[in-house]
Amino acid sequence: MLFRSVTFSKQPFWIQVWSLPFDLINEEAGSDIGRSIGELVEVDYEAFNSDRSKFLQIRVEVPLDKPLRWGGPVISLKGETSRVAFRYEHLVGWCFNCGRIGHDKKECPLPIKADNGDRPYREWLKAGISGETG
């Protein structure tokens, strides 16, 4: 059997969810957030009782035909709205212009720039990176 063309439509990533209200660092919130990104694989339960409790960690099958999500709004159990940020672990081969995986900004078929001329996607989407390096 020959495989001439294999197309991948999604890829699993561990995603850190930062700035989550304390009352939402739980399995239910992790499941809801994970399903909003893609296909939920797992919520890391160990993070609830460890030094990593600064963020919630979820494993999600991320669709490759859509831009990576930066984060989004959440509503706490008290009804307060806040924004969370996503950090993707082991993220490589993605485009700073369109946010899609599989090419870099030089090969981007959909070059998009922010209104102020900055790239809309930066290194901080990668877990463990504090600022843009290039």
| Strand arrangement in the largest pleated sheet | 2-3-1-5-4
Please work out how many helical segments DSSP would assign: 1
Low-confidence segments: 130-134
The helicity comes to under 10%
Mean pLDDT: 83
Give the overall shape, derived from the CA principal axes.
globular
Name the structural class: mainly beta
Report the β-strand fraction as a percent range: 25-35%
Q: What string gives the helices and strands in order?
A: EHEEEE
N- and C-termini, Cα separation:
43 Å
Radius of gyration: 16 Å
Largest sheet: 5 strands, antiparallel
Q: How many E strands?
A: 5
What does this structure look like?
It comes from Quercus lobata (Valley oak). This is CCHC-type domain-containing protein. Keywords: Metal-binding, Zinc, Zinc-finger. A five-stranded antiparallel beta sheet has the order 2-3-1-5-4. The longest helix is centred in the first third of the chain and has 11 residues, at 27-37. A hairpin with a 5-residue loop joins strand 4 (71-75) and strand 5 (81-88). The protein has a domain at 10-91. The protein is 8% helix and 27% strand. It is mostly beta strands and 134 residues long. It contains one helix and five strands; from the N terminus they run E-H-E-E-E-E.
